[in-house]
Amino acid sequence: KYFPVVQNEVYENHLEVSEPSDLVDYIFSMAYMSHVDPSHRSRMHDYFVSKKGADGFLTIPQVYGIFIAMK
Fold first, then answer.
1. Neighbours of 24 (CB within 10 A)
2. Is 7 helix (H, G, I), strand (E, B) or coil?
3. What pLDDT was estimated at residue 33?
4. H or E segment and range at residue 30
5. Cα dihedral sign, 47-48-53-56
6. What is the spatial distance between Cα 71 and Cα 37, in angstroms, rounded to a whole number?
7. Do the strands 58-70 and 5-17 form a parallel or antiparallel pair, or are they unpaired?
8. What residues does 15 pair with on adjacent strands?
9. What Å distances lie between residue 34 and 28, 37, 50, CA to CA?
10. How many helices (H) and strands (E) does the chain have?
11. Could you read off the pLDDT tens digit of each residue along the chain, which spans 71 residues?
């Protein structure tokens, strides 16, 4: 029922977005966003602009991994 050895292998990555409008377009192109009022686009854009770093990029972290369980 239990594994005496469990490892967690993590792969860290990130996406750098230079144009917040491209990110907003991408988000609103997703099927699950079809119910969101398009008037929220400008507010979302402004939010992403406010999150851009000094380097001019909005950094979106992506962390993936796998658990390896061994007997």
1. 20
2. strand
3. 83
4. none
5. negative
6. 52
7. antiparallel
8. 60
9. 7, 8, 25
10. 2, 2
11. 789 999 999 999 999 999 999 999 999 999 888 888 889 999 999 999 999 999 999 999 999 999 999 98
Polymer length of the chain: 71
Q: Which amino acid is at 30?
A: M
CA distances from 10 to 13, 16, 23, 25, 67 (A): 10, 20, 26, 30, 9
Q: Which residue has the tokens 């992403």?
A: 48
- Please count the other Cβ atoms lying within 10 Å of the Cβ belonging to residue 28: 14
Among candidate residues 65, 66, 55, 63, the one with its CA nearest the CA of residue 14: 63
Residue type for 69, please? A
- Cα end-to-end span (Å), the chain: 10
Quote the pLDDT of residue 71.
87
